[in-house]
Amino acid sequence: MKGFAMLGIGKLGWIEKEAPTAGIFDAVVKPLAVAPCTSDIHTVFEGALGDRHNLILGHEAVGEIIEVGSEVKDFKAGDRVIVPAITPDWRSIDVQRGYPAHSGGMLSGWKFSNFKDGVFAEQFHVNDADMNLAHMPKNMSLEQAVMLPDMAPTGIQGAELAEIQPGDSVAVIGIGPVGLMAVAGAVIQGAGRLFAVGNRPVCADIAREFGASDIIDYKRGDIVEQIMKATNGQGVDAVIVAGGDSGSLSDAVKIAKPGGTISNINYIGKGENVPVPRIEWGCGMSHKDIRGGLVSGGRRRMEQMIDLCLYNRIRPEKLVTHVFDGFENMEKALLLMKDKPKDLIKPVVLI
């Protein structure tokens, strides 16, 4: 089979590999739609996960099942399915501890394009199919469905980790596709005043549509100064970091109130350490809670996202600004995530 792969740090290309086969609990899926992610850019061009050679990229896909293993109960060949970006090993102690994303070790639920071939291929393998696939509703568009494996659940988890209470003031730093879904998630959680930090007009427009009350443009001044001024020096109850670099986490600590929560869902791709400002952290005694997590993944999470769409709680298809027809456009779509033109939020490739 053909796949679009990381050949080495900074190198992309098409390769041929042997097609996967399904174990007794597994499935093999052919993609119907895929979406490149900024995580792919961190992985390839920054070497954020270390060097990878001939690893097929991609972790956002919806597809049609080709084959299932003998012990798969709820799915069959021909079913259209949504495939989560995170596919835990559900028969693990880590799942019983409540951390399926880390089943088998730190970040090990993240298999696709981490240590296992991803979804940018003519076929791909899904472990533990009954627990890691969800049936795609017949009335759901491919563009909406392919935002559910990663963008929607990751952004919404940012709001969950922030423990937003009804009426809380919230800031979302970074309003790319994940940050925009964090805005939507904060609204679902009951946010009151909601600051969205970003610069591109196309993203600001969707942030407002999703429920942001204030747009903070980082090119118009320091975001900490802008938010502190807007809140009369008080800061906000919760901060969701969904973009930027390690400095964004430092800014988040500065704008959080004492007792506030900083939720990080940003993939920090560079550096050995992240800065925590001593004074604004109250010399370590501010009661500011810094939390971060990889989205849990799995079937139930996908079914929750499906219901949020079906009952008009979220509109993740609004993130899709560029649609390509045909597998041959994979590289073009991926490089958009690297170059980030002003009119881009998220590209999708229909296969």
Which descriptors apply to this entry?
single chain; 351 residues; alpha/beta; seven-stranded mixed sheet; six-stranded parallel sheet; 11 helices; 27% helix; globular
Would you write up a description of this structure?
The protein is globular and about 60 Å long. It has helices at residues 38-45, 93-96, 129-132, 142-145, 151-161, 177-189, 201-210, 223-230, 246-255, 299-310, 330-339, and strands at 2-8, 11-16, 27-34, 55-56, 61-68, 80-83, 124-126, 134-135, 170-173, 194-197, 214-216, 236-241, 256-264, 289-292, 320-325, 346-350. It is of the alpha/beta class. The two termini are 15 Å apart. The chain has eleven helices and 16 strands. Strand 15 (320-325), helix 11 and strand 16 (346-350) form a beta-alpha-beta unit. The strands form three sheets. Strands 3, 5, 6, 7, 8, 15 and 16 form a seven-stranded mixed beta sheet that branches. Helices cover 27% and strands 23% of the residues. The mean pLDDT is 96. The relative contact order is 0.16.
